[in-house]
Amino acid sequence: MPGSKADQRFIFCLKLCAIFCAGVVMAILGFLLYFTWPIIQRGEIVAVFSLHWQPYQGQFGIIPMLIGSLCLAFLSMLIAYPLGIGISLFVCGLGPRFLTKPISRLVQFMAGVPTVVYGFVAAFSLVPFLRKSFPYGTGFCLLAASLTLALLLLPTIVLVLITGLKPLQDRLRLTYLGLGLNTKQALLHIVLPSTKGCFLAAGILGFGRALGDTLISLMLAGNAPQIPSSWFDSIRTLTAHIALVVATDSQSAAYNSVFTAGLILFLVSLSTNLILYYLHGKTKN
To answer: What is the pTM of this model?
Structure first.
């Protein structure tokens, strides 16, 4: 075949790209391990995994930031995930047809809006609203960051779900029409039970995206290194902690703690991708 050599070259280039990407990932892991290992050797890892961040008193615990990251991710997903499911089902058949395309276009537009725009608008609208409506804090809190982050996660969740629902719905259209089912009945009773992996993947991907976001937490969460006791408390996440410390320090023990924080985030991201890869293979089978 005349195009076989060209195809072979193309496949070879793809393999090289894949090897290069894998090498970059391993290099990042090696970089983080290289700078984290001295902390483990000196026995400072116990101090890093403590409950207090008071650098002027020699306490460099990142546990408050880890808990803040988890609280922000879980709360934002608690808001975004049900909304994402509802919107995706609405677009795929539960809603009227004349609204399907406008809502799809709106979701796609939201996915392209820069994160800093969400944070900027929320800082001048949502934060003052919370400050005036509730007599707690300054408005820069867990709730403000969670609501904004949920809005940021929503397009990702919706697009992942639609990508999983639509092809299967189109593939089974003749089948469920032959059985006398309408679109809504087929969506609820045939398509949904067959796409459980897609819903799980959307949840895991959204959670990983929430845990790794930096700007929303940096702009809206208040950046207080404490364990939150209510929605109105200020928090600091691991990503915001890394950004703040790297921007102001480069030599102290506080700076060394960011490598441990980065390693935790890397392992969470790696776990998320491995789970998604497993779900993809399981769904394909």
So the answer is: 0.81
pLDDT digits (tens, 9 = 90+) for 21-39: 888 888 888 888 887 887 7
pLDDT for position 1: 45
Domain 65-284: CATH class, spelled out: mainly alpha
* Cα angle: 223, vertex 226, 229; to 5 degrees: 110
Please give the Cα distance from 231 to 220 (Å, whole number): 13
**Tokens of residue 5, six digits:** 């050599």
32 contact partners, CB below 8 Å, separation of at least 6: 259, 262, 263, 266
4 CB-side CA count, 13 A: 2
Q: How confident is the model over 12-23, as pLDDT tens digits? A: 888 889 899 888
Residue 104 makes CB contacts below 8 A (sequence gap 6+) with: 91, 162
Residue in this structure with the two tokens 């404490």, named with its chain if needed: 226
Among the listed residues 196, 106, 195, 98, the one whose alpha carbon sits nearest the alpha carbon of residue 151 = 106
| Residue range 115-149, pLDDT digits in tens | 899 999 999 999 999 888 887 778 888 999 999 99
